[in-house]
Amino acid sequence: MMRCLRLTYLALCGALISFNAAAEELSTDANIITGLDVSSSINAQETMLQIEGMAAAIRSPAILAAIQHGRHGRIGFSVFVWADGDYPELVSWRLIGTAEDAEATSQEISARLQSLVDSSSRSVGTLTNLSGAIDHASDMLREAPFASNRAVVNIIGNGEDNVGEDPQRARADLLAQGVTINGVVVGGDMAVLNYYRQQVIGGRAAFVLPADKAETLVQVFALKFVSEIAMHIQPAVRPDRL
Fold first, then answer.
1. What are phi and psi of 57, to 5 degrees?
2. What is 28-241's CATH number, 3.40.190.10, 3.40.720.10, 3.40.50.410, 3.30.565.10?
3. Which of 95-124 are b and which e, b meaning 16 or more Cβ less than 10 Å from the residue's Cβ?
4. Beta carbons of 56 and 10 less than 8 angstroms apart
5. For residue 28, what are the β-bridge partners?
6. Cα angle for residues 19, 22, 27 (degrees, 5° grid)
7. Are the beta carbons of 27 and 146 closer than 8 angstroms?
8. Distances from the Cα of 65 to the Cαs of 58, 98, 109, 206, in angstroms?
9. How far out from the chain centre does Cα 100 lie?
10. Cα 156 to chain center, whole Å?
């Protein structure tokens, strides 16, 4: 009897160790979602700049170093595009923890470019539905296959919501879940920057960055992601002063 009890105890311990190892394997230091604006106010060149800028930034040594300095050494990462229709994903949820992961993610982002600009394959709309983009990001977070104590939503765009509902309700819903919402304003328009500050961003250490020049977009993305992934790494320039 004692031998049976001992074997049962050892089996339970083994099962618990396996369960904890599996849970640990699926944990990340942050789950990060980025929504790229492809509404009619964003021209084809700006769409390509958003995608190519992100693809280049995710390969940045600074970003990889920030990821690898975390407790788990990996992040959950996903990218979708938005306007006022569908929300096709450029990158479904995937782990990034190594240079190989980053390179594969970068290639996936670039590879989806052609299908994105092909309007015959999927309708994403033409208007700027910021509240819809934030709601969709919230849905994606709930479906994330990785556990994390930190969630960040990045909303990239160049205009105010013009669909009917301002983004404040969607923002409040997401902030209530403890999520940080950051922004990048393509073009760097000061009125839009102020709009993002007042109605879009929120949460712990939230910020909005202007991307007013094509050549600065990669640097903006790199600084943004480093700040999000590793809060203890201080950027050389304050994000809100760029």
1. -65, -35
2. 3.40.50.410
3. bbbeeebbeebbebbbebeeebeeeeeeeb
4. no
5. 148
6. 125
7. yes
8. 11, 9, 21, 21
9. 19
10. 10
Quote the tokens at residue 98: 């190594």
Report helix, strand and coil shares of the chain as percent, to nearest 5: 45, 20, 35
Can you list the pairs that 191-196 forms with residues at least 24 positions away whose Cβ atoms lie under 8 Å? 192/157, 192/158, 192/159, 192/160, 195/160, 196/155, 196/157
Element housing 24 (H / E): helix 2-25
Q: Which two tokens stand for residue 213?
A: 């020049």
d(CA 74, CA 94): 10
233 three-class SS: coil
Number of other CB atoms surrounding residue 157 within 10 Å: 28
Q: Are 30 and 76 in contact (CB under 8 A)?
A: yes
Structure tokens at 205: 């250490």
Q: What digits encode the pLDDT tens for the residues 146-174?
A: 999 999 999 999 999 999 788 999 999 99
Amino acid sitting at position 26: L
- Cβ atoms of residues 156 and 134 within 8 Å: no
- What's this model's pTM, rounded to 2 decimal places? 0.83
| Digit-coded pLDDT (tens) for 201-233 | 999 889 999 987 766 777 888 888 888 886 544
